[in-house]
Amino acid sequence: MRKAAKRKVSYVITHNKDDHGHLLGINSLALDTTTFDSSGKPGGVLYSAGRDGVINSWDLHLSLRERKIPKYNYNNLNGIEGKKGNVKDDDNIPLHQFSEVKNWEIDENASSSSQPTPKSTFRQSFQSHTDWVNDIILCHNNEALISCSSDRTMKLWFPHKTSIPCTIGYHTDYIKALAYASGPGWVASGGFDKKIALWDIKECRLAPSTSSSSGNIFGGLSERDFQPIVTIAETSPKSSVYALACNPSGSVLVSGSPEKVIKVWDPKSGKRITKLSGHTDNIRAILISDDGELILSGSSDTTIKLWSLSTQRCINTFTTHSDSIWSLYSDHPRLKVFYAGAKDGLVTRTDYSEYEEIDDGECVAICKENAGIVKLVALDNKYIWTATCSSSIKRWQDVPLKKDRINLSTSSPPSSTSQNAFQIPSSSLIKLTSAVSPPQLITATTDSEVATIYSVAIDEGHNDIDNEDPEPVREMADHIIEGQHGLIKYVILNNRRNILTLDNNGEVTLWDIIKCVKVKVFGKCNIDEIAQEINTPESIPNWCSVDTRIGALTVHLDESKCFDAEMYADEAGLTGDVDIREDQRINLGKWVLRYLFANFTQEEIHTYEAIQQQRSLMQQRQQPGSEHRSLFATQLNVNIPPQAATSTTFTSPTASNQNSTNSKANPPMAPSPTTPLAAFTTGPFTAPATTSSQQPDYFSGPHHLNSPTTSPTTPPVMLLSLLPYNHHRPHLLIRILVIVGPPLAL
Amino acid sequence: MSLFKWIGMGDLRKPATNEPWSSGSEKYFGLENALYFCKPFRECVVNFPNGPNDANGTGENKAEEPSTSNVLSEDTLFGALKDLFWKISSQKKRTGVMAPNGFISKLKKENELFRSTMHQDAHEFLNYILNAVAENVMDQQKKIEELERQEQEQHCNISEKSKSSVNGASINESEESGISADGSSSGSSENTSNTFSSKTTWVHQLFEGTLTNETKCLTCETITSRDDPFLDLSIDIEQNSSVTSCLRSFSASEMLVHQNKFFCDVCCGLQEAEKSMKIKKLPNVLALHLKRFKYQEKLQKYIKLSYRVVFPFELRLFNTCEEIKDPDRLYELYAICVHIGSGPYHGHYVTLVKSIGQWLLFDDENVETVDESEIHKYFGDLPATGSGYVLFYQACDLDLSSLGLPYSVWANNVASSSSSDFEVSAEGAAAESHPIDIQLTPKLKREHRQAPVREPSFSERWILRKNNSSDKRKSNTDQDSKDNDENTHEKSSSHEKEKLSWFGNIVAEERKA
């Protein structure tokens, strides 16, 4: 039998349940424009992944319409410049079909006709990780979301189904980046363990509902699915993966690292195809064109480089930023329109989609955040969402593409002039100087038809803009999805019950980790001074550990020491009518666990009672045992809270009691789980809760229970004495319940 | 086994002034140490506070000076060192041998480490001496400040008188005791006070540089840096490398990853980071310690790495911060401490010093000239020939007045006492106890440049000394070897040329960097 894993119970004390904003910075964003809302049309859903371990989704309430014509002129995509005005709809053959799913775009008419875009509202939230979520990616036509985290796990979540996120992969260090190849149906993950792993998620398409009776909460997945199909491992200390990209067909995978070279991999074999060197610092953002030919990389050396994979050369170096490039975004299949976000907060859009020469394109400084742009997404050149290390997500109005501006100004439809006859001040334009080819004059051929007064103005601007300090077009964000203030520092007071915390707004707060409440808010002051002031000379054993890694207070109870601390009951601050002996003491760990698992205990009792009822019915009917079993199983799957099911495969005690040979014939079952659940209905387990305030309702996240593995071990001696039945190894779940049973008649 | 250790010490008199006695120019002493290990060292700079004592005195007075200084600072290592240097510098003979008994006994008294008969490490010794001297000087400075204040509080007139008396009649100084050294500071009291105010000593001003430890969080790209002062740079070495490449790997960035992540205050968590050591302030005198003695995990003991490490005669430090004042500062090699022997626990130290354009090899009581083209023998590919262990580079643009050092004192010193301008170049001659000899070399580059004029006379003198040397055996072998050298000179010249051109490459490379 394998050695039992160390068991640990953690719980998070949250304070503001009504506000769903992130507590800490946002690390990743993902945009879904295909999911229908209640009105029967998609309104846009934005997913945000925070450093607080939470993934939120937000309803954007955009007015979208079905996209009739592809966004970009695909004739140009193959490098063959189509003649202006000659392009018919028939010629617009996408390189990669829009797939079976319809595409949606911003409905210009709807949006221009009226008031500003409505504010985004909260949709869903899941705290599925216990550390920073570093990246999220949508797959399966936006039905599934995959997240990766510094807690070294990768999770899959079906946001539109009632399921909980399920771990689908592990790395041995922080997982930093994800890339999804829709064609072959795998997701690549890159981590600080210098590994890139490919995970087959085709099977994950299975909806949880189809797997109802298997006892596994996530039907299609079992242990073996946790193996990556391909693993690429590197050894250099600088080869931690910071950026990862692949094309939809999954033919090429590219990665960026502090090694300063872009590595190009063949996902099938895991072999390196080539490496592209030229950057002089960490590569933190990378994009690849749909055909896998062009690579765009953003580096901490402040440059963005465009590479051709077939020639293995750098085609162009964009020096449009003066600070580290942290994020890139493009929805153009050939990356001819792309957005870049830098450490200094500047977001630019570079567009050379209509030109043969990159230098002829334009680069617009769109907005400037207060902090580095960790991630940005854009929609239809209409909106940009930016994520920074602050907990708010900002939405900015994009500016129309050059061709759109020109079309508008020439055709001038009266309906949209007010909004779209948009002039970009020359101070917002950044000159595209090419390091590869000398600047060239704009040739008349490409511009002849669009040479309006307006475009001339832009060209003039081009000539005398200073690259140094562009003025962003947008000074103010269009809309802000506000975040909250997360905790960044803590001090454990000597009584091991009160914790002082400091949030990123500078506020100091005192907490009670047993009652799980805020005791006092000190406001903005020095946390260490307060700690000195209010600390007591007590000396209580260290029964728990605390951290604020995810911006909220997290308490960890470790099996080995969580029962070490006791306090006098009359000093515990109990309220209500409690009869306490003078010298009666409370074990803090047991006290907490008792209430953490109160709901669970209750549920178990109900389940057991239901089973008992059924059993008596069955016995009356004299039916074969095998049929009981399936019935029980069904019943259990309905009732058991998810954490029970994820931690063990539950077997009915009555079934195995009834037929011991049966349990032998079923090795996966826990051996002889004889402990009757009925025991819980009497004795210490029914002790009334003395303080209702101690009933924490934070027990919503099943992930906080780091479920023990399925190998039962002997419980601590102290606990054995409490067991009503100890002649057999108790079932794991039950043992946890025994542990949480209150030792005192409180 | 009682090994008699001999320490050769070279002492160059400053030619800079027109003072009559300066014509005495070079003196070479071998200091003889009868103990069976020796840790001699010398620090001519130490003489500063002391020097002024005879500022007004003539060369003849010098013999008396040591006694004065003894009275002043007998109780410190610094005092002992000062005595030693005084003795050397005040010798009337051009050549000779001197046993640094007083100093060694003091050293042993002060530091338990050096009390045993073990051979000592030259680098450790250098470190200890520099720190101890700096400490002593600091104390003395404090005392002086106090005394000065007291004096001022009393009668200005009287103090002036006393000062003049100090200056005038050094013999009478006994009453003044500790003060004399400073009172001695003579004309330059203002300068000294300036120096003191900076809370550093001239030891720091000469040897101290600043290393900065930069850590860049790879997530938020915030750079946190911490500055550390250093008196010498210890660098790891590799086989068949050069000082330049060793310095490069010294400053190469280190990744803080996996279990060793960096707690970033901005990110409020553990993140990957890149750490690198860079030089933020260049020292005036760079003591470069090559880590030739390394603990080998496998063998559970220290071993000597007799790797060949090429060191250039001219060095530019490239691993500097961006905001550094003078990144292209050129350093010139002026002293090499060489360890001979294959093991870490025993061996022999000799020192090469460049004095007035001429390389001199100090081997216990023997001093001989070495051709510059022979220096490559000390790169260290063979244990037998010895390998460079501590290299002393001096900034070419070293300007004493810019140091904030009491220049007038210096000048006086130069004028009066020959020893004042010497630098510590330490090396021991002893075997296992990495015996250490500190040798004096001229502090001023300018003098080097002036030197060629005198050079011939110097070598003549040297030969003279050689002939007079009491150690016949030694001189014979030397002579033989010299003859041999001359014989082989022609043959090896092409080889040397190659070497030299390689030097050129190194320098060029450094400049590029």
UniProtKB/TrEMBL annotation, chain A:
It comes from the Eukaryota. It holds the Pfam family WD40. PROSITE patterns: WD_REPEATS_1, WD_REPEATS_2, WD_REPEATS_REGION. One of its GO terms (molecular function) is ubiquitin binding. Coiled coil: none annotated. Residues 644-656, 675-691 have a biased composition (Low complexity). Keywords: Repeat, WD repeat. Residues 644-695 are annotated as: Disordered. GO terms for biological process: double-strand break repair via homologous recombination. This is 6755_t:CDS:1. It comes from Funneliformis geosporum.
UniProtKB/TrEMBL annotation, chain B:
Keywords: Hydrolase, Protease. Residues 14-396 form the USP domain. InterPro entries: Papain-like_cys_pep_sf, Peptidase_C19, Peptidase_C19_UCH, USP, USP_CS. The keyword Protease applies. Residues 149-163, 468-500 have a biased composition (Basic and acidic residues). Its EC number is 3.4.19.12. Residues 149-196, 442-513 are annotated as: Disordered. Residues 177-196 have a biased composition (Low complexity). It is an enzyme of class 3 (hydrolase). One of its GO terms (cellular component) is cytosol. Belongs to the peptidase C19 family. PANTHER family: RE52890P, UBIQUITIN CARBOXYL-TERMINAL HYDROLASE. The lineage of its organism: Eukaryota, Fungi, Fungi incertae sedis, Mucoromycota, Glomeromycotina. It catalyses: Thiol-dependent hydrolysis of ester, thioester, amide, peptide and isopeptide bonds formed by the C-terminal Gly of ubiquitin (a 76-residue protein attached to proteins as an intracellular targeting signal). The keyword Manganese does not apply. This is ubiquitinyl hydrolase 1. GO terms for molecular function: cysteine-type deubiquitinase activity. One of its GO terms (biological process) is proteolysis. Gene3D superfamilies: Cysteine proteinases (3.90.70.10). It comes from the Eukaryota.
